[in-house]
């Protein structure tokens, strides 16, 4: 895990990383922010022309019905940087690339290999656009690459280990610190911070009041809240997150106490940088799900293993869950937490969030009938 964590650091800085899959050696680099010089260096070090790995969501946005989770697109040298971002995550690919170029790309696609899937997992974990430049290390370059690994200028990671980096490590979440923090809507609160084993994400459990967490006969009022900097902190009108957060605290207090898990899953797990990109795409007419797809992401990139681990750490087995999202209910049930009851939790509908909430209700199955009863 330690190597993967360091690899993510390098990828975020725009450096290449070596993926090792059996006998195969593949250099990988983020597409996001890849400058001409960096791409040329990758080409030189590998001794082969890089290819572009695209996720199945990005492929779908390009009009390709993918057979696997990803595919590899060989890049002719002159193509390498000129239209890389347009291919990897640009809007309106047909308009920007031209129909003929797109057809040629579709015809050139190759099945993804183990290192390609590992590369995309690393990009996601690094909260970068899920697209990668990959270059197989040529026989003639093996010694030079091995020397770079040996002198510490290049990091080598097992592809298999890298591919698992999104799964987290069940049962290894660390409870780090805690403090009493009175809130405007709930006087008696304890914030407990948990850290993921690789140290890259931190999540907070807010225990409101003094609920009987481990009592078998009661269901603990629970809110799973995914971070939304824009909504939670600034009261953005593009979503309903801030209001839901504050309503949840007040509601849990009114129910005599319970728990709110504040999860580091900004932008449904795609990170703030990508959420801002997605908002700009939405301004050109796409809905929230299609915008994420253009960037190469699925409808919802969140996983709830850490939430289950936090509940386990707090001794909670049965809950009354505040959500409109069926995926959250399913994820808890799958993690062995009994969802005894669901309680709806709404923010206010406005002209800016109407479209976002409609897409969640119509396309992602969120239970928002009550919100739209008046307006639709
Ligand atoms: N990718 C993306 N994420 C968004 C957008 N708008 C809000 N979000 C994120 O969506 C998430 C919403 O989190 P929650 O309110 O906990 O979850 P939910 O899926 O809406 O389900 P509920 O429990 O019913 O509220 C947050 O991580 C927000 O940052 C958007 O347009 N695009
Ligand atoms: Zn929000």
From TrEMBL:
Pathway per the UniProt entry: Cofactor biosynthesis; riboflavin biosynthesis; 5-amino-6-(D-ribitylamino)uracil from GTP: step 1/4
Species whose genome carries this gene: Halomonas campaniensis
Location of the GTP cyclohydrolase II domain: 175-343
GO biological process: riboflavin biosynthetic process
Active site: residue positions: 300 (proton acceptor), 302 (nucleophile)
Function as written in the Swiss-Prot or TrEMBL entry: Catalyzes the conversion of GTP to 2,5-diamino-6-ribosylamino-4(3H)-pyrimidinone 5'-phosphate (DARP), formate and pyrophosphate.
Superkingdom as given in the UniProt entry: Bacteria
InterPro entries: GTP_cyclohydro_II, RibA, RibA-like_sf
Keywords, in A-Z order: GTP-binding, Hydrolase, Metal-binding, Nucleotide-binding, Riboflavin biosynthesis, Zinc
Broad EC category: hydrolase
Name of the gene encoding the protein in the UniProt record: ribA
Cellular component GO terms, alphabetical: cytosol
Keyword set includes DNA damage: no
Cofactor binding, per record: Binds 1 zinc ion per subunit.
Gene3D superfamilies tied to this protein: GTP cyclohydrolase II
Record: residues binding Zn(2+): 228, 239, 241
Reaction catalysed by this enzyme: GTP + 4 H2O = 2,5-diamino-6-hydroxy-4-(5-phosphoribosylamino)-pyrimidine + formate + 2 phosphate + 3 H(+)
Positions bound to GTP: 223-227, 244, 266-268, 288, 323, 328
Pfam families the UniProt entry points to: GTP_cyclohydro2
EC number(s) given by UniProt: 3.5.4.25
Protein name, as recorded: GTP cyclohydrolase-2
